[in-house]
User: What shape does this take?
Amino acid sequence: AQTVTQSQPEMSVQEAETVTLSCTYDTSESDYYLFWYKQPPSRQMILVIRQEAYKQQNATENRFSVNFQKAAKSFSLKISDSQLGDAAMYFCAYRSGSGGSNYKLTFGKGTLLTVNP
Amino acid sequence: NAGVTQTPKFRILKIGQSMTLQCTQDMNHNYMYWYRQDPGMGLKLIYYSVGAGITDKGEVPNGYNVSRSTTEDFPLRLELAAPSQTSVYFCASREAGGPGETQYFGPGTRLLVL
Assistant: This one.
């Protein structure tokens, strides 16, 4: 079974600075997808960014980018020019790309990000 | 589009009571999911459905039941509420197609069993 580990329960960053959230995963598969979700105090789960394992290029979405290291099974999220609205719980998630198990997301325990003004 | 909607937002149940958590999506998605989120943890899959009339168990199905009579609705039933079912419940949906398709989440239902 796949597992997702987020080793930083909490992180903090100054407004306008850059922060990196870590995520590692364990899988024997070669075809899979990785996601970062943001959960603000409203509890709504919001997709931040997605990475396909077959793509070598790191995904970017405006101020959000990932560092995907497939051999190391690492998938970190970098937030540049942090804003107060970025404060939230961030979850790393894995989805298999093959077979029946591709229906579900496997989540890490989350990293609580605080943005200081 | 409203996306994925869930009702109620919050509910207190007594041990042994039953209730149904409602989930509706207006995006014509085939796949729907129920997750629970315990404090300090990520989401865990309870049940999922790949289309009307088809449901299957996830990681933590005990104590729950689901049905899928229409594409839009995917209710989650708790028959005999237990304190261990105190959690936040999320419904999600996604389009058919490849596993890279985005999953859209509802706002969650917070359930407290006393």
